[in-house]
Design brief:
The protein is of the alpha/beta class. The protein is built from 14 helices and 24 strands. It has three domains: 205 residues, FAD/NAD(P)-binding domain (3-Layer(bba) Sandwich); 113 residues, FAD/NAD(P)-binding domain (3-Layer(bba) Sandwich); 101 residues, FAD/NAD-linked reductase, C-terminal dimerisation domain (Enolase-like, domain 1), CATH 3.30.390. Strand 9, helix 8 and strand 10 form a beta-alpha-beta unit. The chain is globular and about 70 Å long. Bound molecules: flavin-adenine dinucleotide and nicotinamide-adenine-dinucleotide. GO terms for molecular function: oxidoreductase activity.
């Protein structure tokens, strides 16, 4: 049986960060993944998605400037774009594996499953470890209606050889909105089906309203309070039976993408044999990211039940705390700064800190700065179909409680607010800051 100081299960962003840190400190470290190394973000999430959306966004920029100095529309060539995307994803597994080998980390390529509290089966090998790090991420939530087997997931969507004429996205969250905006700009007709009353419900709803307006202008059909009853295959199409406010109906579509949330990936781990307590939100951990039932086990990223959002920078951030606790013993309690988050639609929706609803619930005394900025210089030069902001400032001490933006480059501008909030800057500090001009960030001084 192979023995290690540290066994890392999952070679995604969190896993790579932990394995390298442990190996650098001289711990005998191994890592395993049953998929090609790289994890969701680099292979099936953030990175490939952003490459595709950037092209669609450029196409939209050109379209918006037709008759304003540009002539001749451009089109998205899906096949070429997918090839370009693959230049980013294809090298990842080998590069990551080489990095592990260079760091002296043993690499395995099979699912790990607990045999007891310190021993795991990895393919044909039995492995024991002093510390076991679970960073297995999340997987798509399963749709439970007849015909669910006809749906595809975000993984499949990012590898489509061609886009059909019409696509239905189930779920009104991050994935559906991002992919819907991409597909609409790449020439498909798109419908989003959300079973709740609001899409993107954790975002500031005034900004979501703006995004919904531009989504509809882009031809995206958004149906709220709408439940899927059944999916039936018909020749080359699918028939989606729906029940909503307008009663029952059907939708003919070329493809159904299920994006109704993601759940912690614990299926293959046999956690009960390892005495690892877990629930619906993932592995139960304490403030050191250590299992509450098996002290050898630590967990971080999407699979861990923590306060952190299931996002890449959070997985890596938690990985740093976890590594310190594995290397030196429990010494670093995880604490979270304000976490910026972006929906990469065209234009994007970005948020950091409290929404107005949360500020109200916490009984805070705040003022709201909000405006439709489409007519500002930056809005006009981008010919922005949406450019708006809502910033919450504490009346008690002038600190920034939350910032919410929709519009061109909102994904970049939000980082200015996140830095200011982490640094404890007041709204007046941002107002008096000298931003380079004319940049999108220079608008921050008017927003704060
Ligand atoms: C379509 C999509 C787009 C996204 N876009 C963004 C974005 O723009 N920005 C952002 O911040 N976040 C985004 N996310 C979320 C982000 O990808 C995740 O939060 C992040 O990848 C989590 O990292 P992780 O290390 O916890 O898990 P992962 O990166 O998922 O890695 C976990 C690894 O563990 C492996 N594994 C699972 N079970 C086992 C087992 N039993 N044995 C061995 N290996 C196992 C898996 O194969 C996987 O490779 C997106 C997600 C999706 C699906
Ligand atoms: N830009 C980013 O950072 C980014 C992008 C994509 C994904 N992600 C991460 O991945 C996670 C998963 O994304 P997602 O879009 O799958 O989930 P989500 O949690 O963002 O949204 C899921 C939506 O589906 C709805 N829903 C649930 N069951 C349904 C059903 N049966 N029919 C119709 N609607 C239903 C929910 O009400 C919710 O609005 C996100 O929470 C996020 O953490 C992040």
């Amino acid at each position: 049986m192979k023995k290690y100081d540290v066994l890392v299960i999952g070679a995604g962003m969190a896993g790579a960060a932990v394995a390298k840190k442990c190996a650098i400190k001289g711990l005998k470290t191994a890592i395993t993944d049953f998929r090609p190394y790289g994890g969701t973000c680099a292979l099936r999430g953030c990175d490939p998605k952003k490459v595709l959306i950037d092209a669609a966004s450029l196409r939209e920029q050109v379209r918006l400037h037709l008759g304003k100095g540009l002539t001749g529309d451009v089109e998205v060539n899906w096949q070429e774009l997918m090839k370009f995307k693959e230049t980013f994803t294809a090298p990842v597994p080998e590069n990551m594996e080489k990095g592990f080998e260079k760091a002296g980390i043993d690499t395995y390529h099979a699912p790990a499953a607990f045999l007891d509290e310190s021993t795991l089966q990895i393919g044909q090998e039995t492995v024991s470890a002093e510390k076991i790090v679970i960073v297995t991420g999340a997987r798509p939530r399963e749709l439970e209606v007849p015909g669910a087997e006809h749906t595809i997931t975000s993984d499949d969507f990012l590898n489509l050889e061609a886009l059909p004429e019409h696509i239905t996205f189930l779920g009104g969250g991050y994935i559906s909105f991002e992919f819907a905006h991409l597909a609409a700009r790449a020439g498909s007709r798109v419908t989003i089906i959300e079973h709740g009353p609001r899409p993107l419900k954790h975002f500031e709803q005034d900004m979501v309203d703006e995004l919904v307006r531009v989504s509809k202008e882009a031809g995206i059909d958004i149906r709220l309070n709408c439940e899927v009853q059944r999916i039936t295959q018909k020749a080359n199409e699918y028939e989606v039976s729906l029940e909503g406010e307008a009663g029952r109906g059907t939708l003919e579509t070329g493809l159904v993408v299920s994006a109704i949330g993601r759940v912690p990936e614990v299926g293959q781990l046999d956690l009960n044999k390892g005495n690892v307590r877990h629930g619906r939100k993932g592995i139960d951990v304490n403030e050191y990211l250590q299992s509450t039932s098996n002290p050898r086990v630590y967990a971080a990223g999407d699979v861990a039940d923590t306060e952190g959002l299931p996002l890449t920078p959070v997985a890596v951030y938690e990985g740093h705390f976890l590594s310190a606790n594995v290397i030196k013993g429990n010494s670093k309690k995880v604490n979270y700064p304000e976490i910026p988050t972006v929906v990469f639609t065209i234009p994007s929706l970005a948020s950091v800190g409290l929404t107005e609803r949360q500020a109200k619930e916490q009984g805070l005394d705040y003022k709201v700065n909000t405006h439709d900025a489409r007519q500002w210089f930056n809005g006009r030069r981008h010919r922005a179909p949406a450019y708006a902001y809502k910033v919450l400032v504490s009346k008690t001490d002038g600190s920034i409680l939350g910032a919410h933006l929709v519009g061109p480059q909102a994904e970049e501008t939000i980082n200015v607010f996140a830095v200011a909030m982490k640094a404890g800057m007041k709204a007046r500090d941002l107002k008096s800051f000298l931003f380079s001009y004319p940049t999108m960030a220079s608008d921050v001084s008017y927003m704060a």
